[in-house]
Structure formats: C-alpha cells, structure tokens
User: Which sequence fits this backbone?
C-alpha cells in the first residue's frame, strides 16, 4: 500500500479528479458535466452516494468505506463501438482486484461475469455502469464509466451474494484501490485503441471469465432461459447454446450461474 500513497486519490498525470464527500451519484455528476466537457479525462469520486445507480434500474448501496467513481472521457469512436468499454473496464477491474489480493491466500478464483460483474468465487465484489452523452458538437460520444468496488464492506442482497476486499486483506482503502484502478483502466483503454484492437480485449476478457461450457441462466426482462456458454461474439454479445440446440446471441440481460457452487 505504501507505494500508492494511502488516503490520497491520485489518478494518472494526464487525468483530472474531483472528490466529493457526498453526491447523489458519481455517474449523475459526470453526466451533468458532460455538455461542457473539455476533453481532459476526468474522474469523479464520492465517499458516499445517496442515489447510487446499478444496472437494469437497480439501486447501488453506497455507504462510506467503498469506492464510488465515474470516469468521464471522449473516445474517438461511434457509440456502438463504445459498448466495448464494458469489457475493457472489466479487465482493468479484474487486474486491480488481483493486484490487491495477490498477497492474500485466497483460494477462490477472481472471475468476470458477462457483461459487467467482477466476482470472487461467486460473490460480487465490483460492478460497472456505463452511460453516454451525445453532444451534437462532435460525432464522438462522451462516455461515463461508473465503477463501484466493495472495499470495506458489502451489502446483504437478496438476489445475489457479495463480498469485499477487506475480507481478504487488511491494508486496503478506497484511495489505494482508486490509484491502481485508474492506471489499469488508462492502460487498457489505450490498448483497446478506440475499438481497433477489440479482438485483443475480447481474448483478455475471455481468459478471465467463466469458461466455455459453463451452464448459465439468462434473464432478459420477464423472460428466463438456460443454456451453455459458448463464447463472446465479435461485438461482445454473449453466445449460448440452449437445451433445444438453438444458438442464441444475448446483447442485454442478467446472467446467473446454473450449477451449484460445489461444482465449480
Ligand atoms: C451494477 O449494477 O453492477 C453496476 C453498479 C455501478 C455502481 C457505480 S458506483 C459509482 C457509479 N455511480 C453510480 O451511481 N453507479 C456507479
């Protein structure tokens, strides 16, 4: 922890950071700033959020002690290509969590789950919510990558298990996690090269995700279906083989593991 100067949020040199004691939502604050965005990559951090947003309209419990941050930047690519950023960010988060836990004797795998979750074993430790703003002044969208990492505690949720970094290592706080994450994300965004190298990102993501053959259950709106994970399609869609033999492409929805954890 010492080399990253604990208790100070320090992003890479070319980035700006604004730190708040409390916000409704760091994503909301980033979106408020998007119309006047000058192009300098900008991190918004809040110690607490009163209306933290999760995927699919869910609430993100945001009490003091965890990391709540949003990264505002303008990639030079169309909005459709910017969808890749879920995977780019997932890899950076996986690397961040792996780096922090490398000194622990954790036995559970750190795993990415389509599209946006980071898990330890099957317990969620971090989530990503990407939103966008189209200015009309340029063709390129302004993107907000919202990231929540459970650092000091995790919420008790009814629909999924969660965990936090402090359950595995003692010397960890939000600035320390942020300083690693902001560098990892900058490196991966550079590697992605505005979408030109998504193939490489797809490979790196797949190496860190549930393996082909994993039995998954997918919820899309009110519909739920089960099948076996095949791979990520060229654009990042989830490809699964249903029990009927049909190959299905999933572009939105929630994914759950079907097998009991003992089988992992
Ligand atoms: C998910 O549902 O898994 C995504 C959760 C994303 C939460 C983060 S916390 C910082 C940023 N601000 C928000 O309101 N949401 C994201």
Assistant:
């Amino acid at each position: 922890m010492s080399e990253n100067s604990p208790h100070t949020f320090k992003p890479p040199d070319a980035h700006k950071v604004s730190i708040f004691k409390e916000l409704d939502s760091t994503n909301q604050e980033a979106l408020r700033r998007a119309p006047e965005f000058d192009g300098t990559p900008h991190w918004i951090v809040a110690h607490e959020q009163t209306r933290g947003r999760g995927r699919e309209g869910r609430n993100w419990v945001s009490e003091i002690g965890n990391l709540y941050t949003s990264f505002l930047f303008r990639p030079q690519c169309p909005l459709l290509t910017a969808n890749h950023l879920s995977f780019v960010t997932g890899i950076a988060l996986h690397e961040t969590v792996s780096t922090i836990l490398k000194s622990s004797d954790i036995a559970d795998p750190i795993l990415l789950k389509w599209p946006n979750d980071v898990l330890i074993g099957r317990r969620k430790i971090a989530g990503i919510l990407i939103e966008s703003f189209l200015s009309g002044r340029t063709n390129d969208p302004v993107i907000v990558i919202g990231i929540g990492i459970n650092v000091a505690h995790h919420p008790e949720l009814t629909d999924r298990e969660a965990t936090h970094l402090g359950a595995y290592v003692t010397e960890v706080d939000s600035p320390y996690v942020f300083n690693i994450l902001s560098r990892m994300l900058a490196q991966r965004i550079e590697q992605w090269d505005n979408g030109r190298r998504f193939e490489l990102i797809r490979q790196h993501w797949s190496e860190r995700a549930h393996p082909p053959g994993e039995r998954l259950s997918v919820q899309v709106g009110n519909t739920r279906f089960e099948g076996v994970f095949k791979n990520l399609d060229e654009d990042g869609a989830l490809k699964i083989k249903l029990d009927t033999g049909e190959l299905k492409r999933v572009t939105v929805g929630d994914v759950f593991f079907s097998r009991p954890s003992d089988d992992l």
About this structure: The chain is about 20% helix and 30% strand. The two ends are 32 Å apart (CA to CA).
